[in-house]
Write a structure and sequence with these properties.
The protein is of the alpha/beta class. It has eleven helices and eleven strands. The longest helix is centred in the first third of the chain and has 18 residues.
């Protein structure tokens, strides 16, 4: 039995799709924890065991982890969380206890790059995510934290600006290269780990994308794929604060994002070397063709 949290999100939804295909022949059961089962397609609900509620709730995870061999763990965003610790570690504590109580053997979690870098202790969401990893690892469960850089898919937040003005923004220098990844590649790595549970102990699995790219590189590729000029505008941290607050984020989350982006400028994502094992396959051009273009043209 594999339990999937956040099964309607970008990563969890793709993971569920992969596992539904792969587990049919294996005879392995799937269970999902979801606040609103109506967000799952009817065909999916017919093939999985559904536990309704929040996976931050002790009663919910107690029911969901009964008989579970493996769990996919992803903390949802909570716009008005009072602190980053509340959003990550406090949310995870009930599950950490349930891992032990129900003898869950393996857990795969979504986390971030940065462990071991000089700025890891002041990196906002990343710092809180790494503390959550330590909490889970401390239960004794076999744990793999998927250590991710920035997602390509975050650009979907700016699809309207890209479509209407040919502009996307960020805080990085225009020529600063760094890793970035498609969320579907993260889901694929998670699926491999959940299906082949021959691993033990705790550790990180970096998912770096196939190449380092700068904002200027992203602009050039988007221009080629969309067939019109797209340019990058560097924004100030004050501008970013206003944008995030305008999306309804509370002060704790906003400050966490600002601290994370400052840390990325200071090398947070630069501590892991890309190898055949850490390089995920989806190139940015391919992602633009298959994901961004339909959204921009809709």
């Amino acid at each position: 039995m594999i339990v999937i949290t956040a099964p309607t999100g970008q990563i969890g939804g793709r993971l569920l799709e992969i596992l539904l295909n792969e587990t049919r022949a294996r005879g392995e059961e799937l269970r999902v924890i979801v606040r609103d089962p109506g967000r799952l397609p009817d065909a999916v609900r017919a093939r999985v065991d559904v536990v309704t509620g929040s996976h931050g709730d002790a009663e919910v995870v107690d029911r969901a982890f009964t008989g579970a061999d493996a769990v996919f763990w992803l903390v949802p965003s909570h716009a008005q969380a009072p602190s980053l610790d509340a959003m990550y570690s406090h949310f995870t504590r009930a599950a950490a206890k349930a891992f032990t109580a129900h003898g869950v053997g393996h857990v795969v979690g979504v986390s971030a790059l940065g462990r071991g870098t000089p700025v890891a202790g002041r990196a906002g969401h990343v710092t809180a995510s790494l503390a959550m990893d330590d909490l889970i690892a401390g239960t004794g469960v076999a744990y793999r934290a998927l250590a991710n850089p920035t997602f390509f898919d975050n650009l979907l937040w700016q699809a309207v600006s890209i479509r209407d003005h040919g502009v996307f923004t960020g805080t990085a220098a225009a020529d600063r290269k760094g890793p970035a990844v498609a969320t579907r590649d993260i889901a694929a790595v998670a699926a491999d780990l959940l299906l082949d549970r021959s691993w033990a102990g705790t550790g990180e699995v970096p998912v770096l994308g196939p190449e380092d790219l700068s904002p200027n590189d992203l602009a050039r590729i988007m221009s080629d794929v969309l067939g019109r000029p797209i340019r990058y505008e560097r924004q100030t941290f004050d501008d970013l604060r206003d944008v995030l607050a305008g999306r309804g984020m509370g002060d704790a989350l906003v400050q966490g994002y600002l601290d994370m982006m400052r840390a990325k400028d200071d090398g947070l994502d630069d501590g892991v070397r890309r190898t055949p094992q850490t390089a995920s396959p989806t190139a940015f051009r391919e992602w633009c063709e298959q994901v961004l273009t339909p959204v921009v043209q809709a």
